[in-house]
Design goal:
This protein is α+β, with helices and mostly antiparallel strands. It is built from twelve helices and 14 strands.
Length: about 375
């Protein structure tokens, strides 16, 4: 997961939904042209199902994201969002049982069964940050910026070593038994809010025995893990890898003006069974898969949107199931989960020719007439 700190801004969004729908979001009746890029329909269903389960927890569980968001302006209430996600899994399961090619890879099928909301970038927002950032400066009028993130692969050590001197820590001991809400109510008195990342790197948590280290990493691996939100530690001699995912942070927001080593935000982690996306707390996060997951501004868009990304004649389906600090008030960008890589150089070998900009369309299951 990229980052799970969202503020309760939903009550202030209705007016901005209406304004945005008149400029950056529009109904589209033309058929989507081209072909579908081959992806794993089981993975798409898996992310859709996990997202649906999170939505089914209700607005009282997480009002920041469990709402219809922008689609409410296009007859797309939360029930329709859920129906769209359910439809994806129903089709995948029917096709799998029948032993036939996935209809989710058939462009005619997509055009018949979904209504389309075209999403164009809010370049007034991006213009505020485009200095010395050519990717932002060059956003087209009709395509979103599609950045990429990945599941960090790393080698780790069970003990502190000269090559691996920095730990991923569990949530501090003084809030191990507290829910997120209980801990936040005590923010002036608990360890997690007391230290910046730079403080933690001095070893203060070990010196004062405030939190338990789980795995030790190099500085580069630590910084990449904090940025990406998940790390896969490779197993020795054929053993299965282990996964660690962000749990709770120190309450300091991501600063777009700072480089990653300068960021003061620090995440505490939890050992998991796989890769996890959004969740307000570690008690439940959405299981996600590469190539079918994107991160974006969940508080504005609403969790669980089925999105078609298009470039030229190629189209791919993804589910909005993750977020990050860079997406607060960001309606010009999505972040594409690209796979498992050691670092950006490793990633670029696979994605050197992958476009930076895509047309984006939110798909809603058509309603019975």
């Amino acid at each position: 997961m990229k980052m799970n700190v969202l503020v309760g801004v939903f009550l202030t969004l209705s007016a901005s939904f209406t304004q945005a729908s008149q400029t950056y979001f529009t109904s589209e009746t033309d058929l989507i042209e081209g072909k579908m890029t081959a992806t794993n329909p089981q993975d798409l269903c898996g992310v859709a199902h996990g997202t649906l389960e999170y939505l089914n927890k209700g607005a009282s569980y997480d009002k920041a994201v469990n709402h219809a968001g922008i689609t409410s302006e296009f007859n797309g209430d939360l029930a329709r969002i859920k129906a769209t996600l359910s439809f994806i899994c129903n089709i995948e399961q029917e096709d799998s049982i029948a032993g036939r090619s996935s209809r989710l890879q058939n462009m005619d099928f997509i055009n018949r069964h979904f209504d389309v909301i075209r999403w164009r970038p809010n370049k007034q927002q991006s213009a505020k940050f485009e200095t010395n950032k050519p990717l932002l400066k060059n956003i087209p009028d009709d395509e979103l910026l599609l950045t990429k993130y990945y599941i960090k692969k790393a080698q780790g050590s069970a003990i502190k070593t000269p090559d691996s001197p920095y730990a991923l820590y569990q949530v501090p001991l003084d809030e191990q038994s507290l829910t997120l809400e209980q801990a936040d109510a005590k923010r002036d008195h608990i360890t997690r809010y007391r230290y910046t990342k730079q403080d933690v790197l001095t070893g203060v948590l070990d010196k004062l025995k405030l939190a338990k280290p789980m795995i030790w990493l190099s500085r580069d691996a630590l910084e990449d893990t904090l940025m990406q939100g998940t790390v896969m530690i490779e197993g020795d001699e054929g053993n299965a890898p282990t996964f660690y995912n962000v749990d709770r942070n120190n309450g300091i927001g991501y600063d777009r003006a700072l480089k990653k080593q300068q960021q003061k935000r620090y995440w505490y982690f939890k050992k998991t069974h796989g890769v996890l996306g959004y969740g307000k707390d570690a008690s439940y996060k959405i299981p996600i898969k590469p190539l079918v997951t994107v991160a974006g501004d969940l508080s504005y868009l609403g969790l669980g949107k089925l999105i078609m990304l298009s470039k030229g004649q190629e189209n791919r389906l993804v589910v909005l199931a993750d977020t990050g600090g860079a997406f607060e008030n960001n309606h010009y960008q999505l972040d594409y989960l690209g796979g498992y890589f050691y670092n950006w150089d490793d990633y670029i070998k696979s994605y050197r020719h992958f476009p930076d900009y895509f047309q984006a369309r939110i798909l809603l299951l058509k309603q019975p007439k």
